[in-house]
Amino acid sequence: MEKIVNPQREEWAALLTRPQLKTADLAKVCKEIFAEIQKDGDRALGKYTWFFDQVRIDRLEVSEQECLEADSQVSEVLKQAIRTAKRNIEAFHALQCMDRNEYVSSEGFRCWQEARGIEKVGLYIPGGSAPLFSTVLMLAVPAKLAGCQEVILCTPPDRSGKIHPAILWTAQLCGVHKIFKVGGIQAIGAMTLGTETVPRVNKIFGPGNQFVTAAKQLAVHYGVAIDMPAGPSEVMVVADASANPRFVAADLLSQAEHGPDSQVILLTIDSRWAETVEQEVVSQLSELPRRDIASRALENSKVIVLADMEECLDMVNEYAPEHLILCMENYIEAIPKIKNAGSVFLGNYAPESAGDYASGTNHTLPTNGYAKAYSGINIDAFVKKITFQEITRKGLVALAPTIMTMAENECLYAHRRAVEIRLEDQKI
Q1: 18 vs 39: CA distance, rounded Å
Q2: Which of 85, 325, 342, 412 to pair with 234, CA 20 to 30 A apart?
Q3: What value does the mean pLDDT of the chain take?
């Protein structure tokens, strides 16, 4: 990890630059694959599954028999862990379900808002070097709570044409309706355009590599919504001498092992303490099965020593991290100062892993600085909110002068007339 001590504020933007994706080339590839899917449907999915995943798939949809086999292949210990995580995720997200909001005017009109689940949603679950069955929980649980009528899931098969049994078991537990053996660009294209087997959806959710990210951005041009823009995963840790160096090193490495393009940044005010963390990172790295991946991620990562905690929090808001860990004294006092972050973990005993799996918050979060404008996945991501209004004659009389004056001043005379004609017709 590169170490920088007391950088000037004008240097911050360059210091906090993320690894860049070559999106122009990816967009061209995505357009070509989407066009082929639009033309050839399932045949194109089979072609690109062979090209990217080196496996030929005779049946895209996972069968009932495969689901039964998965049930026997997942250990009871893992099943219980998944059930516990689901219970916490469900409880936290259920609190976000909107009650009806209503404004009633004494002048004779009322307005209210009601939520409706998005009818058809598609969940993308990566299945490469790490089968992310936890992401099934993070997406399918709120989708079901929101009342989405059709929930489908796409995930890439392995070289034998199978889906990881934990993904299949978790999808069944969460009530996913259909599961398809298709990944990458072709999965996003299938859910965007629809094929003979894979239905078109209204909105696509889920993380993925740079190919999936580029495909999701293209999906928007075909009238399909996406959860949020995405990029490589990241964590920023703000720590002082009260933090345990071993804990902090473990947090940095837990993020680094996601992928070689992940980024981890440590902010502190104590240079000597930071050296202890760096030594711990080296020591713990050697014990990790995914140390090669983590090592490459650490090449994009930094230790930054600043003058005080106020500066650290300013840098947090400039970077807008996906994950933010505050291991510092009086971290509660820092909470109001956090303006831009996806999910925040407080104190020595709140590792990012807790949010990734089981505490209840969602781990599908804005990356690449998008936390300045986007929230992580929550119930709102799976619903539309529809407004209603009911106006009595008395209410229209009360509103009429305001409506007609504003319409006339915008030169929208038909708008004014729509009110005026009612007043004339009702003779009020």
Answers
A1: 37
A2: 85
A3: 95
Report the relative pairing of strands 323-327 and 234-239 from DSSP bridges: parallel
| Annotated catalytic residue within 234, 257, 322, 352 | 322
Structural domain for 406, as ranges:
392-426
In this structure, the strands spanning 2-5 and 302-305 are parallel
- Considering the candidates 323, 410, 420, 424, report the single residue annotated as catalytic: 323
322 catalytic per annotation: yes
Q: If we measure between CA atoms, which residue out of 421, 417, 396, 398 comes closest to residue 408?
A: 417
Question: What is the spatial distance between Cα 271 and Cα 241, in angstroms, rounded to a whole number?
Answer: 10
At 299, the amino acid letter reads: E
Task: Return d(Cα 206, Cα 61) in angstroms, integer.
Answer: 19
Active site residue 11: no
Please name the residues in contact with 112: beta carbons below 8 A apart, sequence gap of 6 or more: 100, 101, 102, 103, 387, 388, 389
Q: What is the CATH number of the domain that holds 122?
A: 3.40.50.1980
Same domain, 249 and 317: yes
What are the pLDDT digits (tens) for 46-62? 999 999 999 999 999 99
Packing angle of the helix pair 271-285, 245-256 (nearest 10 deg): 50
Condensed to tens digits (0 to 9), the pLDDT of residues 90-138 reads: 999 999 998 889 999 999 999 999 999 999 999 999 986 678 999 999 9
Same domain, 210 and 247: no
- Judgement on whether residues 215 and 240 belong to the same structural domain of the protein: no
Token readout for 88 is: 């916490």
pLDDT at 231: 80
Question: Same domain for 216 and 277?
Answer: no
Structural domains of the chain, count: 3
